[in-house]
Amino acid sequence: MANKGYAYGLSADVARKIAGKRDPAKEKEVEDWIKAITEVEFDAKKSFEENLKNGIILCKLANKLVPKSVKKISDSNMPFKLMENIQNFLTMVENYGVPKTDLFQTVDLFEASNIPAVTATLFALGRVCHSKPEFEESSPSYKNWPTLGPKPSAENKREFDEQTLIEGKKIIGIQAGTNKLASQSGQSFGGRRQVNK
């Protein structure tokens, strides 16, 4: 981690808020998903972020999803090499179909400054995987890998015939107003008070 002093004031509030967003159950779900695909064991003595910090496990995941997508995985302890591993993973994930807005920053993982963003990116990757042939049972390239997170919904476009469209125009929606239900008749807000002597 970088040499940072203690956070005070607004910085401390932000750090507490980010720490409050961490969900150990989701982190465990991500860990189990990565283990199932890569067959790499996480070090039980290390935390979630410590296992992922060097980027090696993430690069192995990338190479399982798209073979040879990360050409060189550095096992050096030099910080810039470790950050390069993380950046290579992020590049592969973006090319795989994860929106740029769902990606974490390299520093979020390397300095463990925003682990919920790391977890969210891995869940976004899991959502994208639902549409890939390796994860679809009906596909010949199915690999019996588990999925992560909910399956994205598919478009359900409907086509109506001309007669149905004409009938639909005759219906007055409740938002258009009605005089058969509750109304404001009898209310006198803003009116003058009549005082009888």
Automatic annotation (TrEMBL):
Query: Which gene does this sequence derive from?
Result: LOC100182675
Name the Gene Ontology molecular function terms of this record: actin filament binding
Q: Which domain of life is it from?
A: Eukaryota
Tell me the classification of the organism that encodes this protein: Eukaryota, Metazoa, Chordata, Tunicata, Ascidiacea
Xref: Pfam families: Calponin, CH
Residue ranges of the region described as Disordered = 134-160
For biological process, the GO terms are: actin filament organization
Q: What is this protein called?
A: Myophilin-like
The record ties this protein, via InterPro entries, to: Calponin-like, Calponin_repeat, CH_dom, CH_dom_sf, SM22_calponin
Q: Which GO terms describe its cellular component?
A: actin cytoskeleton
Q: What organism is this sequence from?
A: Ciona intestinalis (Transparent sea squirt)
Q: Which family does it belong to?
A: Belongs to the calponin family.
Chain ranges of the Calponin-homology (CH) domain = 24-130
